[in-house]
Amino acid sequence: MIRIKLNGKEEEIESNISISDLLKKQKIKLEGVFIGYNQSIVRQTQLNEIILKNGDALEIIRITAGG
Questions:
Q1: Integer Cα distance of 40 and 53 in angstroms
Q2: Distance from CA of residue 27 to its chain's centroid?
Q3: Is the residue at 67 inside a domain?
């Protein structure tokens, strides 16, 4: 297990998991979502490549439209 910050909250998650796999486990759809990883925006094409490590910070930002 590793500890990361997910949207500003400490979370304990399984080790050796990609951002993509974590999003699937959290049931987060990628449509209208930006992912911040250690203060950088991650392209959706990179989500499978990045394996989360202890101490990483992940921000999930959902774009919403209003009127």
A1: 15
A2: 11
A3: no
Q: Kindly report the CATH number assigned to the domain that includes residue 36.
A: 3.10.20.30
In Å, how far are 1, 3, 10, 44, 47 from 29, measured between CA atoms? 24, 23, 22, 11, 13
Query: What residues in the chain have per-residue pLDDT under 70?
Result: 67
> Which secondary structure element, helix H or strand E, spans residue 20, and what is its range?
helix 19-25
Q: Count up the domains in the chain and report the number.
A: 1
Distance of CA 60 to the CA centre of its chain: 6
The CA distance from 52 to 66, in Å, is 33
CB 4 within 8 Å of CB 11: yes
| Res 9: pLDDT | 96
